[in-house]
């Protein structure tokens, strides 16, 4: 995926939410996009998933301009762990299966293992059949984020997007989850969007957004 000189406005004639943003996401690479709240990270993700149009510039996916693809097709290719992801009031197994209906037990275990969730699941009396509270109310923050990561990994999209996966976690838990994310996504085309700046050494590339502009240190 290649993003070139992208400009997005939330309303015609309004100020650009993104301007002059370029980003390369080659196959198999983990690219981290860092920026403070309001820097344009969410707008970029919305543009990538065809939830908002881009005014000028280019997003090319598979050699074609993104706007030439149907939105539903784009979101099958570019998806993952977004900020509106929820934990449902059902079992652990049922929380993961929407990502890949019909997934085998082995596939579920692999995703949970890569998200470092298996030890917790196996410690529970009901294991995979443990009922979870609405939006993860019965889980710790780290467990909730790892469950959402396991769901994203199980979906296995060609381009995995992880939007603020450590949001709301304390610094130590955030650092542990981030390290496991970078390990779990090794060799997988991944865009990790975060406001965290620590613990990113394992990423293949890091880009920074500031006030809707790409920043080059």
What is the averaged pLDDT score? Answer: 91
- Beta fraction: 15-25%
What distance lies between the first and last C-alpha atoms, to the nearest angstrom?
23 Å
Shape: globular
List the helices and strands and how they pair.
Layout: E1 2-9, E2 16-24, E3 30-34, H1 41-48, E4 56-61, E5 64-65, H2 71-77, E6 78-81, H3 92-96, H4 105-114, H5 118-123, H6 141-155, E7 159-163, H7 171-184, E8 190-194, E9 205-210, E10 213-215
Parallel strand pairs: 3-8, 3-9, 6-7, 7-8
Antiparallel strand pairs: 1-2, 1-4, 4-5, 9-10
Helix pairs in contact: 4-6, 6-7
What do these coordinates show?
It is a single chain. Helices cover 30% and strands 24% of the residues. By secondary structure, the chain is α/β, with parallel strands linked by helices. The chain has a single domain (2-215), classed as Rossmann fold, CATH 3.40.50. Strands 6-7-8-3-9-10 form a six-stranded mixed beta sheet. A four-stranded antiparallel beta sheet has the order 2-1-4-5, with helices on one face. Strand 4 (56-61) and strand 5 form a beta hairpin. Helix 4 (105-114) crosses helix 6. The protein is globular.
Characterize this entry briefly.
This protein is α/β, with parallel strands linked by helices and 217 residues long. It has 7 helices and 10 strands. Helix content is 30%, strand content 24%.
């Amino acid at each position: 995926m290649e993003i070139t000189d992208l400009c997005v406005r939330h309303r015609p004639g309004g100020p650009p939410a993104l301007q002059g943003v370029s980003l390369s996401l080659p196959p198999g690479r983990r690219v981290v996009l860092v920026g403070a709240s309001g820097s344009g990270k969410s707008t970029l993700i919305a543009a990538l998933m065809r939830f908002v149009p881009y005014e000028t510039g280019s997003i090319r996916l598979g050699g074609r301009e993104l706007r030439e693809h149907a939105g539903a097709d784009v979101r099958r290719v570019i998806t993952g762990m977004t900020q509106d992801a929820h934990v449902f009031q059902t079992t652990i197994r049922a929380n993961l299966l929407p990502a890949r209906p019909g997934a085998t037990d082995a596939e579920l275990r692999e995703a949970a293992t890569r998200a470092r969730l298996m030890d917790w699941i196996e410690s529970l009396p009901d294991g995979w059949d443990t009922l979870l509270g609405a939006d993860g109310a019965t889980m710790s923050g780290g467990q909730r984020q790892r469950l959402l990561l396991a769901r994203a990994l199980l979906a296995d999209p060609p381009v995995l997007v992880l939007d603020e996966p450590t949001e709301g976690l304390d610094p130590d838990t955030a650092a542990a989850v981030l390290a496991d994310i970078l390990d779990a996504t090794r060799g997988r085309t991944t865009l990790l969007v975060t406001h965290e700046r620590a613990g990113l050494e394992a990423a293949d590339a890091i880009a920074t957004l500031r006030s809707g502009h790409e920043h080059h240190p």
